[in-house]
Amino acid sequence: MSSLLSRSTRVNIRSVERGVWLRAARLYSINGTFGRAVLQRRPKVESSQNTTPGVIRPSLFRRSQSSETDGFAPPSIYNYENIKKLSLNPEKDKVLVDVREPAEVDQGFIPTAINIPYKSAPHALSLSEEAFEEQFGFQKPSKEKELIFYCLGGVRSNYAQELAGNFGYDKRGNYPGSWEDWVQKENSRK
């Protein structure tokens, strides 16, 4: 395809991949047909944000670039009591998703949760049902179900729920307290 594009367009596309364009529109021609490409700058990562290497930032994959919203509804926020009820009485339309790495999950997890690691498999919810089941050993969650994410301290779960929204999962929840809150509250009950 790059041979069909003009040299300046190829340079501009490469520039977009590196995150250099702010907002530019350029006409391009492929086999005589003209189209318009809108190129946007990648958002800067502020020093206060988590800058863990290897973590995909969902903001780079937004479906909508609306200045007011992300293009989809915000997630439901869950606390310990909500998650405790869900773990004791699972609901058919809700799935608890642990996004920690398998080594972390080996140290403990919330009952009924499935493990879809965010850092090592951020693409998981974009896989076909067959590929997902082959990779994880269980069925891919349906888009009709609400996915409720948790991690160790709430950072990865927030990124994971945003990324899930980009993959078409409109019903999403987040347990910001995550595993640390769960362990603390469970230990205080004993």
Q: What's the SSE blueprint?
A:
Layout: H1 7-18, E1 23-30, E2 33-40, E3 76-77, H2 80-88, E4 94-98, H3 102-105, E5 114-115, H4 129-136, E6 146-150, H5 155-166, E7 172-174, H6 178-189
Parallel strand pairs: 3-7, 4-5, 4-6, 6-7
Antiparallel strand pairs: 1-2
Description:
The chain is α/β, with parallel strands linked by helices and 190 residues long. The chain has two domains: 1-43, no CATH class; 76-189, Oxidized Rhodanese, domain 1, CATH 3.40.250.10. The chain is 30% helix and 17% strand. It has six helices and seven strands; from the N terminus they run αβββαβαβαβαβα. The protein has a five-stranded parallel sheet with strand order 3-7-6-4-5, with helices on both faces. Helix 5 links the parallel strand 6 and strand 7. The longest helix is centred in the N-terminal third of the chain and has 12 residues, at 7-18. The radius of gyration is 20 Å and the shape is globular. Mean pLDDT is 75; it is low at 1-57 and 59-69.
H/E topology pattern: HEEEHEHEHEHEH
Separation of termini? Answer: 63 Å
What is the structural class? Answer: alpha/beta
How many domains make up the 3D coordinates? Answer: 2
Write down the CATH topology of the largest domain: Oxidized Rhodanese, domain 1
Short description, anyone?
With 190 residues, the protein is α/β, with parallel strands linked by helices.
